[in-house]
Automatic annotation (TrEMBL):
The protein, known as: diguanylate cyclase
Cofactor list: Mg(2+)
EC number assigned by the record: 2.7.7.65
Recorded GO MF terms: diguanylate cyclase activity
Domain of life per record: Bacteria
Source organism per UniProt: Pseudidiomarina gelatinasegens
One family name in Pfam for this protein: GGDEF
Reactions this protein catalyses: 2 GTP = 3',3'-c-di-GMP + 2 diphosphate
Location of the GGDEF domain: 193-326
InterPro entries according to UniProt: Diguanylate_Cyclase (IPR050469), GGDEF_dom (IPR000160), Nucleotide_cyclase (IPR029787), PAS-like_dom_sf (IPR035965), PAS_4 (IPR013656), Rev_trsase/Diguanyl_cyclase (IPR043128)
PANTHER family in the cross-refs: DIGUANYLATE CYCLASE DGCM-RELATED, REGULATORY COMPONENTS OF SENSORY TRANSDUCTION SYSTEM
């Protein structure tokens, strides 16, 4: 075996210099009843905490300083396992927080009993600071991306709503209705349930416009739309503005008599609005309705045509009425 190149005296000199000049804190402590007592701490350790003087109890040091909680458990672990222990601890010094990686080495006597613990720490703060800065920046970036994504989703929802809404009445528009109709037809076929469609058309609306002006016409359309919306009570009911003064209502699962009842209720409530129209025989705005109810084998066109024909008939029969297609 190779001989140690240094003699005892030289070694002591080296260790003394290391002890004094090292920038890493070093200390030796010993276990006492329910605590540890500082035996000696090097200048680097004292620079961090000058109370680390011989005889100081660790419990006192910890109680009155910025050491992180739970560091004593590292010492107890070293004592119990008689093995070196490594852990991270934070220390507050002059208002700044330092992160240290601490190493503890047990010193055993001839009876294999831990008499002392030798400790040293390596300051990780400078290494961790840029990492923390990066993490904080990342978090900031994540938050910004989340915020922007939310804004974008919100804008897209708004756009989606706009694309299916009639601007004047705020009812669904024809585009939305056509999609809903296809969906409901498929559903009605699957479940072998009836599907009702009502076409509504304001009577003598051209003369209303001509007499009272386009803005009054717009206000009338809005009021009529409100009445219609109030009668589309179930979540699957759809009411839409189909064209100028034409509205449609899709009522899944309703039979002819029930659909007719809805149309008549709408007509009654339109009459209640008492929107004056001197050119109409009733002296006020009225509505005509055409109702179609289908079941089994039918297409969207079948349903629309049946309802349209029924509406045509109710117009031809004198308006201000609801007719169900045969
Ligand atoms: N104010 C207003 N009028 C509209 C709008 N869209 C369509 N109209 C008008 O609605 C009127 C529809 O007239 P017609 O189709 O002849 O129907 P009508 O006069 O109601 O006759 P009948 O349905 O047979 O009773 C036209 O004068 C259109 O200019 C709108 O958004 N605002």
């Amino acid at each position: 075996m190779k001989q140690n190149p240094f003699n005892q005296e030289e070694l002591m000199l080296f260790f003394e210099q290391l002890w004094k000049k090292s920038l890493n804190p070093f200390w030796v402590c010993k276990p006492i009843a329910d605590d540890f007592e500082m035996i000696i701490a090097n200048p680097a350790a004292q620079a961090l905490d000058k109370r680390q003087t011989p005889g100081t109890k660790f419990s006192e040091l910890i109680a009155h300083s910025g050491y992180s909680h739970g560091i004593l458990s590292g010492y107890y672990q070293c004592l119990a396992t008689k093995e070196p222990v490594e852990f991270e601890q934070t220390v507050k010094h002059n208002g700044k927080e330092f992160v240290f990686r601490t190493f503890l080495v047990p010193i055993l006597d001839d009876n294999d009993k831990v008499t002392h613990i030798w400790g040293t720490s390596h300051n990780l703060t400078d290494f961790l600071d840029p990492q923390r800065e990066l993490l904080a920046l990342n978090e900031l970036l994540d938050a910004k991306v989340r915020e922007r994504t939310e804004q974008l989703n919100h804008a897209m929802e708004k756009l989606e709503k706009l694309s299916i809404t009639d601007e004047l009445t705020q009812l669904a528009n024809r585009r939305y209705f056509d999609k809903a109709l296809k969906k409901e037809i498929a559903r009605a076929k699957r479940s072998a349930r009836p599907l009702a469609l009502i076409y509504f058309d304001i009577d003598y609306f051209k003369t209303f416009n001509d007499t009272y002006g386009h803005s009054a016409g717009d206000r009338c359309l809005k009021q009529v739309a409100k009445v219609l919306a109030a009668h589309a009570k179930r979540s699957a009911d759809v009411v839409a503005r189909y064209g100028g003064e034409e509205f449609v209502m899709l009522l899944p699962d309703l039979h002819k008599e029930q659909a007719l009842e809805v149309a008549e209720l709408v007509r009654r409530d339109i009459a209640k609005l008492k929107l004056h129209n001197e050119n109409a025989p009733a002296g006020q705005v009225t509505m005509s309705a055409g109702i179609a109810v289908v079941q089994d084998n039918f297409t969207a066109d079948d349903l629309l045509k049946l309802a349209d024909d029924a509406l045509y008939k109710s117009k031809a029969d004198g308006r201000n009425r609801s007719l169900v297609a045969d």
